[in-house]
């Protein structure tokens, strides 16, 4: 296990861990380290950001360029506004990345069944994983690899939806919440 860094907001891990299964397949992260991290996240604890070295360095660079500290708000801003661009670049080099799965997407929780939730997303109805984050019916959330990351406001939800529209050729968005009165 890599030495743990502290003072990294929990939401970094809520977004980053979803890529963990790809990193396990590549041999970059052990399955045990990923499962330990997910267990910690479910209990509201952070972990070692170096498990997700590239994402962590990108977030730190994002903070440096904006002359801001590493905060939950900055992390959310990075994942909502920059992550999709990175995914599209990486997917050209690494064939194990399915871009649309790795995008940060908005979703509205329709129902909950244990640690799973049915939700409406820009790509239609999906089943989301709730093992690391909490949500209830009607919540608007951000997702990554169909894991729920965070609850979000209606304004943040629409902002994220509009961010995805920039990549519509890649994403094949099927619904618009403004038209469907979500």
Describe this structure in words.
With about 180 residues, this protein is α+β, with helices and mostly antiparallel strands. It folds into two domains: about 10-95, no CATH class; about 100-175, Roll (SH3 type barrels), CATH 2.30.30. The chain contains ten helices and five strands, in the order αααααααβββββααα. It has helices at about 10-15, 20-25, 30-40, 55-65, 70-80, 85-95, 100, 155-165, 170, 175-180; strands at about 105-115, 115-120, 125-130, 140-145, 145-150. The protein has a five-stranded antiparallel β-sheet with strand order 3-2-1-4-5. The chain is globular. It starts with 9 loop residues before the first helix and ends with a helix.
Chain-averaged pLDDT? 88
Helix/sheet category: alpha+beta
Give a count of the beta strands, DSSP E runs of length 2 or more.
5
The number of helical runs is: 10
> Segments where pLDDT lies below 50 for 5+ residues?
1-5
Assembly type of the shown chains? single chain
Q: Calculate Rg over CA atoms.
A: 16 Å
Span of the ends, CA to CA: 43 Å
């Amino acid at each position: 296990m890599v030495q743990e860094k502290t003072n990294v907001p929990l939401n970094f891990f809520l977004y980053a861990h979803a890529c963990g299964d790809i990193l396990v397949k590549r041999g970059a992260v052990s399955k045990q380290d990923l499962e330990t991290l997910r267990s910690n996240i479910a209990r509201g604890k952070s972990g070692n950001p170096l498990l997700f070295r590239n994402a962590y360095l990108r977030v730190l660079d994002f903070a440096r360029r904006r002359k801001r500290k590493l905060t939950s708000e900055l992390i959310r801003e990075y994942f909502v506004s920059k992550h999709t661009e990175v995914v599209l670049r990486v997917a050209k080099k690494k064939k194990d990345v399915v871009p649309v799965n790795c995008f940060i997407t908005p979703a509205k929780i329709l129902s909950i069944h244990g640690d799973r939730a049915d939700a409406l997303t820009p790509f239609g109805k999906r089943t989301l994983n709730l093992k690391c984050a909490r949500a209830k019916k009607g919540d608007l959330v951000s997702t990554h690899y169909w894991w729920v990351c965070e609850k979000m406001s209606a304004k943040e939800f629409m902002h994220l939806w509009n961010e995805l529209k920039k990549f519509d050729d890649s994403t094949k968005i099927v619904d618009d919440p403004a038209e469907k009165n979500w």
